[in-house]
Every structure is written in structure tokens, then in C-alpha cells.
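Record type: monomer structure entry
Structure origin: computed from sequence
Chain ID: A
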Amino acid sequence: MQEFRDSPRRYPQKRAPETRLKDYNEIYDAFDVETATTQAKRCVQCGDPQCLFACPLHNCIPFWLRNIAAHDWDTAFQLSNETNPFPEITGRICPQDRLCEGACILKDEYGAVSIGTIEQFVTEEGFKHGAQLPVAETMTDKRVAVIGSGPTGISVATFLLRAGIQVDMYERQAHPGGLLTFGIPNFKLEKKVVFNRFELLKKAGLKLFLNTELGKDLLYEKLGQEYDAIFLGIGAEQSRAAHIHGELAENSFKAIDFLRNMQLKIFTESFDTTYNVTGKDVIVIGGGDTAMDCIRTSLREKAASVRCLYRRDSANMPGSKKEFQNAMEEGAEFLFNASPKKLVDKGNRATGIIAEKTILTEKDASGRQSVKIIEGSDFTLDADVFIFALGFFPKSPEFLQAYGIETDDRNRIVIDKNFRTTRKHVWAGGDISRGADLVVTAAADGREAARDIIATLLP
């Protein structure tokens, strides 16, 4: 260990832009055994490992790095999967630069340990060699209904099944995975990776019901009668509006609708051809990872041009730096310090967008800068398609109020410190209770909720 002076940080190799734009395959190559081992040996093995504390799951990062360095693959696999319901997924899509790697003591002088890529490697290498996930020796008679098959649902199901509690999972879409399937494009996370996790959960006893929507195909009363507990992990898919003139034009799209339809197209299933951007000039409004996903998807769909409009500067973009870099490499154009004012519409269609130039104010006491519009700085950009990627918030289903499940003024389900809702034997977690956040925080919520459900059902 501690070979950081002799071995520089290695980034995973990625395919050239001109090659990766031809398909939706993941752009990064996995580490091989030698590279993963060498990179793991860079770990300092801190007495106070900040990488562990910066991770919402508090994964035992230094411990599995040490076992990789010692070629103890099975122990590394077990440690990584002990706290994390899907390391091969978080290794791909977590913003490590803001979490574990951002807290690495080596970051500034030597370059952080490549935690994310090693995390992906250790689980997939384990699968190749037949490593087995922990499972319950026997199942109890306790049954839990999990509503939603996104990151939180996968997590709570994983830890309940390990405790021997039977889990039935209900998903309204035709494919499981929620955000992992319909909100994150294949070039970041191939769906075979997601679906493989569901196969593992099925082997552990999960019963998965697709095309089943609570309140429509599935009655809440039935759940209360048949299950010992219910977990609500229905996510946050309501798009934030820009509140500008023309945003309801037929060629003005919400990011989640665009991404979902493009994923259906990749599945070779029926999709709304309204969202076709081939040969069109596209403008994406927003600066987060979802905006980058829309940009990079549009480029793969052979849009004539793709421009991104963001009201702050590049240093203040909320998304991952590597996703911004990837979008730049693939041909996107960025217009910073530009805020949308209104769409220029003609009939039911928009022909352009009027934007205003902005400046950032001095930092306030919290270190945040506000956006200030420069008066009289209007300019117009013509385009064929406008995609708004301004974030998401929960949409409160009607049945919640009917059954005494309280929500706050932002449509988030109200929970206590144990993820219990205001309805007895009903828990909730992830985006539906905290608002739109990271996949890893959703996974952490699911794990902690499962612990309380286990403690309640198996005292």
C-alpha cells in the first residue's frame, strides 16, 4: 500500500468521441486486474478515512482497497457489497469527484485514488469468478411490498431479502430500474448492468411485478391487507417548469420525457416520434447532469447542432465535471451566463429562444453567488427543438392523502428519522421524501429504511 509516489492516478480509458457517437455503448473501459491492483495500492490507509465519511453509504473503501492490493478478491467483493446494494452501478455513475475521491487525502498533490472505477471492477470481477452475494438461509413469513423499482426500491429490497423477509416489488413501467433505466442513458450505464441486479434479487426471492401502478392496477387497501409493511420509493419525476412564455410549445420538451422516449427507441419499443431530433438544431436549457445527458443523447441521435444555455458560468455548473468534458469532446456548444427569457413561438411551435445575459454577484455569507440579469442584453437563438433540464420534484399521488400519508409543501412524503411515514407500517425514502438527489443517497435511504423495517418485523 501507499505506493502513490511511484504510481500516478490512472483514469479509465475512454473511446474516442468520433467512435462513441456512433452508438449508445458505455464510453469508459473497465480496469484490468493489474491496473486495479496497482491503483488500489496507492491508498494511504488513513487512520481517519475521509473517503468513507464522504460516501453517503459509508462504504468501507479503505478495507476493500487493501484486500484488492493483497489479491483477496472474495473479501474485497464481500466488503464492497456489504454496505452497497449495487457497487457496479455507483462505481459508474456516482460523482466521485464531489464525494469519496473529492475527500481523498491524495487528491491535491498526487491525485485521488480511483475509487469509483475500482469499485466497479471489484464487483464485476467477483461475478466473473462466481462470487456469491449474501443471502438469507431461510425466509420468514413476513412480507413487504416495495412500490417502485428505482435505486431506493432496489436497496430496500436487497437488505430485506438478506434478512429473510419476503419482498414483492411493483413497478408501473414495462422495465425495472426507474431512474437507472429511463433517466440515465446507456452510454453512462448500460441497462444489462441494471437488469443483472434484478436477476440476482430474483434468485434471492424477489417477486417483481411490472406494468403495475399503485392506485390504478394495484389498490392500496389490498397492500394493507396482504403485507406486513409497505415501502414507498416512487421517486421524483415531475419536471421543474421554466415559467416562461412558449415553454408549452409542441417542440419544447421536458428532459425526462425526452430521455424516456429515447430509451424506448433503444429498446426498439413504441415511442413518441415527436421527440425525434435527427437533423435538427437543439438547444438544451440547464447545467446539471441531466442536461448533459440530453445533450449527449441528442448528439447520438444525429442532431444537426446541440447548444446548451446555462445562466451561470462553467465553474458553477451543478453537474459532474467529467460529464461536461465528455459533452464538449462530443461536439456540444455551451453558452454561459445566459438565462432564458421566453420562447419565440409561431402557432404551436417555437422557432427560437430569447435569452438575457447575466453576471454573478459577490458571494454571500454562505459562499453562494446570485444571478443578476443585465438589463437590455436580450439576444435570440434560433432552433428546432428546446429541451428543459431544470431539475425534478416529487409528484404527490392522490392516494397518499386518502390514506393519511402526510406530504409537505414540496410534495415530499413526510418521514421521521427511521423513514416511517405518518401511516403505521408504511415507510418511504429516496427522492419522494428528500427531493431529487443522487442515486447513492437514494441507496442509503433504502438501506436505512430496511434496517428499521427489519427491527420492527423481526424484533
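Annotation 1: DSSP finds 17 helices and 16 strands in the chain.
Annotation 2: The mean pLDDT is 95.
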